[in-house]
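Hi everyone, sorry if this is the wrong subforum. Our group has a chain we'd like a structural model of before ordering constructs, and none of us has done structure prediction before. Sequence below.
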Amino acid sequence: MSQRLALIVGNSLYRDEKLAKLTSPEADVGAFADALLDQEMGGFDDVKLLVNMASHTVRRAISDFFSRKNRTDLLLFYFSGHGVLDDRGRLYFALKDTDTSLLRGTAIPAHYVTDEMDNSRSQRQLLILDCCHSGAFARGSKSAVGASVGTASTFEGTGFGRVVLTASDATQYAWEGNQIIGDAENSLFTHFIVKGIQSGEADANQDGEITVDELYDYAYSCILKETPNQTPGKWSFKEQGDLIISHSPVQHPAEEETQEDIELGEDEDEQLDQLYTDGLSAMLSEEWDAACQKFEEILENEPDFLDTGERLKEAQFQRDTAELYLEALSKYEAGELKECIASFEEVIARSPQYKDAAEKLEKIKAEKILADLVSQVEASFAAGDYDSVVEMFDRIYNLAPDYKDHRGLRDRAQQKIDEAKRLNQMEDLYQLAKADLSAGRLDEAKSHLSQIQQLEGGYRNTEQLLERINQQLTDETSSTLELIKPDESDEQKDEQGVSLFDRLAGLPKWAIGVGALGAIGAGVLLVGLILLIARGFPNRANQVVAPSDQVIETIVLTDTTRVEETQPPTPITELQMGLVNPLDGAVLIAVPAGEFEMGADPQSGLDFCIQTLGQGICGIEDFEDEGPVHTVFLDEFWIYQSEVTNQQYAEFLNENRVVNNQSVDSWIDLTSEFIQIRADGSNWVVIPGFEKYPVVEVTWDGAVAYCQTAGGRLPTEAEWEKAAKGEENLLFPWGNQFESQFANVDDETIFSQETVGCSSSDCDGFRETSPVGTFPSGASPYGVMDMSGNVWEWVSDWYGDDYYENSPSSNPAGPQDGTFKIRRGGS
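Answer:
Right subforum, don't worry. Here is the predicted structure as tokens:
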């Protein structure tokens, strides 16, 4: 069963001082509600009143009102109060808590009402607005701030059977009653709406029913008699049949003549002539609605009066064209250029010479092209397409020479282009310099690096490369080494009888200076139990351990100990023969400068784990920090061939009681069952037979302290990995297949009661650690021992699970800070 329902909203009080207090809305809604609820008049089933309510309450009530309704239900929504326009010409209904500077959040947008009406199943909808669409504030008027708004485009939506009645057109105030008709409590518009229902005067055809059209015509004519400054408006959208809003409370006998009939009867021809003349006058002044009304009134009484029919068609055509023209202007003011162009094209299609429509259309099309270009410029700039930005600005200035680039996008884009060219030029020069250095062409390398310095000082490591070329460090290094040079009788000589100490002066770099000295010792560089599963050196998942109680910065020696080449680089095969550090007797291995592939594919690590340990032991998350594989360039460095031994570390403890305000308690856990160093009075000694075994249970601080006293530093993780696998992306130092005979790992020996001697092929012969260098067949491509297996080894880097994704491509040194330090290798 169909229902007749109404939601009536009125607001007279406003917190925003910009919105004047109104006197009529409270009376408006009350009088209108009474008329609708009277069963002899409106006969509505339910009328809900909301007076001076907050915006969120009204918003919910509107949504609830239009929801869950039937197609034949009559829904009437009435609003009395201020109508406010934003700076884009969009209409909002102001409520008690409306802030004109925050319209979207504190007022009801007109499009919100339209959307709710569109979503309703009802096809009998009536919207009555007793508020303004535009204009400034004035005493006694319901005002709106901003430009005019197209009522038709605002409330048409997509629904059927919709009628919109408004108190005024887009340029007038909706006057409160006491400004025009004395002591009336209601607004002018609502006053005549209510009067037309209560008196029955709106029942024009006296059939006992008052339709929406009859009620509007009655209010329209009454208001025009009172004031020429307010013209009500009506729009119908896909209306099907008459929409009856009320019964007439006054019965009119069929034979009773109306006053209008009497007046027409007295001098009908004279009145028709006057109506015709008025219609023509209205057309001359382009008052198309008034002209249509006059001609329609004539035709109702005399269908064949003169050429009134043709005049009416012409007036209607001009009225519709004028509405399209005004709608186009409204869309232009709202910044809807595409829709504005479509409206102007429709105007021109109807009337090619209509006013200045053609001229405005061409102007707005040019503005649309300009606006599109500006929008594309911003998108291209944000996407980093700076060439397109410059190209589009050239087109913009052709269209609008006076266009102001307030954000400076064109200049900024050109700067980005120039900067990219400069960076590309520097990188090309840098690569040429590297090639020159590799080939020993020092003059050419210096020239290329000097050009880079002119473009940008400090690019990559150009300053260091220039220093290597310009400074003659051989004498400085020789004099530095003389301070610690052993007696001539104890010096080691090569085959030509040259002291290895003297040889250092002619080599490109030594680990004490910039390489990673002793960076591989299980004591100096690692700590932790050795009874762990060997997974090959790429695996970082087992390398993160809790740091020591005190963590100090990674130590690198000053430039005073650098050794520079004065001759072309010695062949790598000769360099890899090794040198001896006179401070602890350790052999150093050269790792040449160049690129290598760092990291490993996580899936490869998982596949190996499953192959080794079986399903269910490890998952892909255990290997995610191994990737991605990325190319890294490292300068040349020297590194210890073997892990630091118990003997070397015991001598370090005896000779260095305090380093960096730290002592032995901070360096090594001498209480561990795995330690092979013991106290002997005031000295530290190695358990006999374990002198050449790697020291274990050393903290990261203890590793740093050892390196410092030995004249070097811990390696970075990148240096360690390159020393371990060379330039090829190998899984193990010796290749991609695991062989237990190539490293001391966790195999079946650990379960044997014998120290050595197991017969299985899956056996390395040692239950725990083994002497350093025991497995020469497992050496890395550079000849470094025990990079997989035996004990884990400290590096200088902090751990970061995403560092590989963000690390620099040249000489990465790890994150700036972190929670854990990294260890590599292990078994």
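For your construct planning: The two ends are 84 Å apart (CA to CA). The chain has four domains: 4-247, 259-329, 414-470, 480-595+630-743+770-826.
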